[in-house]
Amino acid sequence: MIVRAPGKLVLSGAYAVLEGxxxxxxxxxxxxxxxxxxxxxxxxxxxxxxxxxxxxxxAVWFDASALRASAPAGAPAAASRKLGLGSSAAILxxxxxxxxxxxxxxxxxxxxxxGQPAPAWDARALFLDALAAHRRAQGGGSGVxxxxxxxGGVLCCRLGPGxxxxxxxxxxxxxxxxxxxxxxxxxxxxxxxxxxxxxxxxDPAAHRALLGAAAEGAxxxxxxxxxxxxxxxxxxxxxxxxxxGDRAGAxxxxxxxxxxRPAAAAEGASLAPSGAGGGDVSIFVGAAPPSAxxxxxxxxxxxxxxxxxxxxxxxxxxxxxxxxxxxxxSQV
Length: 332
Prior knowledge:
By secondary structure, the chain is an alpha+beta fold. The protein has helices at 45-52, 87-112, 123-138, 144-151, 189-202, 204-223, 227-248, 255-266, 292-300; strands spanning 3-12, 23-35, 61-63, 68-69, 81-82, 154-159, 165-169, 177-183, 270-273, 281-286, 303-305, 316-317.
């Protein structure tokens, strides 16, 4: 029994979501695979937090290679790196679902005798267990990556009182092109958030003003009815986050993205960091895909296109009659 959970791409609302603004997040068709019948190759901090909380009895085998960039030629597989697609959340969700599905097998066998098949897991309970463990391991966070892995699709998420995360399906504008780029630069989300928190303590007025501007852009992104309006809303956020990063000493918008933004704008598109920024992945969003000239400029700046589709299904058991294909590994 193989379970898989998708990674995620934050489209809008980074940083501002922690202040109550809406965030748009999409599940992508790159998955973590989990097999409850095989021993775990390692135990992540998030999975250990779920075990410590009693939400999980043990870790299981998983393969997260589809959410990592492949290692350079001749280098060991361990030299691969995360792409910033929410692998820690996807590993946790896949593990919780795999153990729940394994436990449900016994219940289903017994229930089938009386015609009452048992579900593999309770989606709401799975989400809450994963959210709590992920936040405990990472010292907080919005949890939008957990929501994407559990529910799938494209979601609008907003933090409510007490840290509750409100999640609802969201329809993106039609005729929208979204392309994902990865770089060899990377930054730990926790480090980026710590620098931004330090700015809030050092200069609360600047922190408040810049996150307020980002929140306005995030709200406009949710309301956007067409690609042009969404592009404008994303650009507002990138402008605010670039200055936020400058003041905090955090490279939220990297030099490569700054150089390429005018080229994207010339094509009626926005080029924005996805999530906390600092490298990893960025998104080109417009009414049409990037031109060959833009792709060449991106390559020259150290960015490579990473193929993926948005709106993938949430965590699920693979069809037992159809064995899983070899995970797709990015060739960036």
